[in-house]
Amino acid sequence: MSQIGSFALMLALGLSAYSFLAGLLALFNRNAASARLGETARRAGIATFAAVLLAAIVLVAAAFNDDFSIAYIFHHSNRDLPAAYKFAVLWSGQEGSLLFWSLLLAGYGFVLRLRYKTDQRLFAYASMIIAAVQVFFLLILNFAAHPFAVMQGGLPPDGTGLNPLLQYPEMVIHPPMLYLGYVGFTVPFAFALGALIMKYPGEKWIHITRRWTMVTWCFLTIGVFLGAHWAYAVLGWGGYWGWDPVENASLMPWLTGTAFLHSVMMQEKRGMLKVWNMSLIFATFLLSMLGTFLTRSGVISSVHAFAQSAIGTWFLVFIALTMAVCTYFLIANRSHLKSEHKLEALVSRESSFLFNNLLLLTVCFTILWGTFFPILSQFVQGHKVTVGPPFFNRVAIPVALLLLLLTAVGPLLAWRKTSIESLKRNFLYPAVGALAVGGMMILFGVRPWEDPSYFYATMAAVLSALVIFTVISEFLRGGRVIAGKTQRNLFSAMLQLCHRNTRRYGGYIVHFGVALVVVGILGTPFNKEVEKEMGFGDKIFIGPYTLVCQSYTQDDNPNYGNEWAIISVFRGGKQITTMYPERRFYKASQQPQTLPRIYPSFREDLFLVNDVYLVYEGKNETTGRPIIKAHLNPLVPWIWIGLIIMVFGTIVALVPNAAAVQVAATTPVRTPAHAGAGD
Amino acid sequence: MQEQGTEMKFKILLSADSIPSVGPGSVGPRSVETAGVGTGALARPSRAQLGSYRRSLRLQIRSTRCLHAAVLAAAVIILAGAGDDSARFKDLGHRMMCVCGCNQILLECNHVGCTYSDKMRDELQASLDKGANNNDDLILQGFVQEYGPTVIAAPTTTGFNRVAWIMPFVALALGIAFVIFVVRSWKNRPTPALADGIVMPQGSELDEFRRRARKETDQ
């Protein structure tokens, strides 16, 4: 079995190398033969997908067949591992995850090469660049991190099992989503670099790649948030974001990708920011690579560094090489990237995008700086320092709040020029509503002047409310106009409005989701926690809840033995639920693992929802009594709801626009002027 | 956020520490008051003098009460601060990392069987139990000596570590300057000419088009 896998990987390397070299020759030698050569390069690229897919299938089949002659399977699986996790073995270790990365890249390349007729030359460039990236991954897979390496010595009877932290349903979804995001940015990168190399006329390449970029961004968003949810639901420390280097690595390309999605509109509509957009998409791709470098190189300590090896050097060389190529073409072809238009007014959508990009990149720089500062410190001071949550919270949060303000104000600004009157008219009610939210917080006892964390929480609440009210007012305003013209009811008119400009209103929905995510985060300063040894009938009082320990029980299955507490949750004297925080002991890996239980109080609170979060921490060695840690985390469920809304908004933005309803204008207006807020 | 909150609490404690020095001053007015009464008993004062004296006495009594209240408040703050070890424990525990390699904040490390976090928490509690003389910086310094500089969760604000804090804001400032430069240069750029002699509407004419378009779409 391992021989089939090894052969498939070697074949894939040969095919992708051919796809790259033949594609390169075909593009730079313009004659009749080169067209045929280019076609063979495209087909070789398609065949690469088949070969990598075969390798991945072989690895998964080996996991299902408990083929412990393959070292990777021995180290990441065992006989009693449930089937879903055996499937997840593919991305649970270094070699497998690199193979999975290569598979996704080949999959994206496969789709791209099938759609080559859209623009044959541009697609040929993109295909060649994707093949080059593919060659890099297949070189590592064949020569540095072989997933089909054979076990030395005798055949072991069982594997050492999957890391217990990874044995959670979300881990079956989180890595594929994250990888789809990371890898997906290779496609817009390939189109951008291709367009730059060939000096592609016009902005068509942006239209072609827009969907790729949005889909990729959506996957990365889901991946990042699922990672946060996994940390929340599995690691058991009561939080969802620890500013770990690998978490940071996933956030950085997300930030530059978000900046690109905004600034690319400037290029589409006004022919501006061409160099900037190129740089952003290059940076996003390179930051995606940096994430893998951080995870695998071991240069920075991280909870995610499950496996470290020398492949960090490979990544470093690849990143340096890619940077050199990108920089060279940016400089050599800079005349092609000249802006076409001038800025008419400071108060305009264009300015807001500039500042939006500035703030997103400042947050990104802060994270990059904080992540690499320990290495810099080692170099300068001779010792490492830790750059942890206190640093990132203090520096990134104020900038993020400014960004939230721009999220609220930006959509109200028109392209080219915004009159102060229209800004006042559109901004007044949302601003009053947002200030009312701030006033209510103070009324309910939050004292922003007492503690900076309360100040940030209040500001975040006010600004999120501003975003939410702005989005609602935009929908209502547009809906009313359509309702007036078409005699529909307001809701139906808003649906039509959304369908007529899916990109703009999908974007608003995404902003709405972002505001809800911020609402979920701003509850952090109000978190409570209590830790207690609990015997039968013992109670923990936390916030309005009383937790009563009913009993303890245990169970056993082939994969793990476990024990859990049975805890009734009361509120106002009424039992609202029973929770079962659990502790497992995995037999194959001989590792313990706590599994918290979470109860979101939607039924009792609706808007001001809390998470009751219980962790069975283990037993006190002296007394033998179990220790339960209870957290009360206000508003956290809004983060996950915000994610769902963000994804929904992205899907809306991907839907093609409906044909505009023909409405006779009451006064003829000359066409050249673009007025009002666009998308 | 946690960090900053703690710093503020620490400042309150410092100001509370300085309050007792006001205490001896409160003896002053009381002694003046006693002296005044004594003087009045010896030389019978006039009605005007008596009124003035009563007003002055009321003022002194009020100021004395104010001082008593201030001293009491200070005492409450000091006592509350002194007894609030759990808040200090929580704060300091969030300013340090667990050194077991989990890369988590000390009080958030919940790794089953972690050999470091329990020991470190005990040490932190012991340091706090030593008394008020053992201030936060000394406690953190003690941990640095025992576990190395990586035990502190964020760079300090001394020496080269200051660069960590300054750089993001320098980057933001440079970014703002760059954006302003770009915006200005774009604004001063000449309007591009259109082919076929089409003249782009400018100034008030363009504003009029915008106003009419807005009226059509935004009634």
Topology:
The complex is a heterodimer of chains A (679) and B (219).
Chain A: H1 2-28, H2 32-64, H3 71-76, H4 83-88, H5 94-114, H6 120-143, H7 169-184, H8 186-197, H9 204-235, H10 245-270, H11 274-297, H12 311-332, H13 349-381, H14 389-409, H15 420-443, H16 452-486, H17 490-500, H18 502-521, E1 528-533, E2 539-542, E3 545-556, E4 560-571, E5 574-579, E6 582-586, E7 591-595, E8 597-600, H19 602-605, E9 610-619, E10 626-634, H20 637-654
Chain B: H1 2-18, H2 27-42, H3 47-83, H4 85-94, H5 117-129, H6 136-147, H7 162-187, H8 203-217
Helix pairs in contact in B: 1-3, 2-3, 4-5
3D architecture notes:
- With 679 residues, chain A is an alpha+beta fold.
- Chain A is 61% helix and 11% strand.
- Chain A has helices at residues 2-28, 32-64, 71-76, 83-88, 94-114, 120-143, 169-184, 186-197, 204-235, 245-270, 274-297, 311-332, 349-381, 389-409, 420-443, 452-486, 490-500, 502-521, 602-605, 637-654, and strands at 528-533, 539-542, 545-556, 560-571, 574-579, 582-586, 591-595, 597-600, 610-619, 626-634.
- In chain A, strands 2, 3, 4, 5, 6 and 7 form a six-stranded antiparallel β-sheet that branches. In chain A, strands 1-10-9-8 form a four-stranded antiparallel β-sheet.
- In chain A, helix 2 (32-64) packs antiparallel against helix 5, helix 5 (94-114) runs antiparallel to helix 6 and helix 10 packs antiparallel against helix 13.
- In chain A, 52% of the residues are buried.
- Chain B has 219 residues and is mostly helical.
- Helix content of chain B is 67%, strand content 0%.
- Chain B is built from eight helices and no strands.
- Chain B has helices at 2-18, 27-42, 47-83, 85-94, 117-129, 136-147, 162-187, 203-217.
- In chain B, helix 2 (27-42) packs antiparallel against helix 3 and helix 4 (85-94) packs across helix 5.
- Mean pLDDT of chain B is 65; it is low at 1-45 and 75-83.
- At the A-B interface, helix 13, helix 14, helix 16, strand 7 and strand 9 of A face helix 1, helix 7 and helix 8 of B.
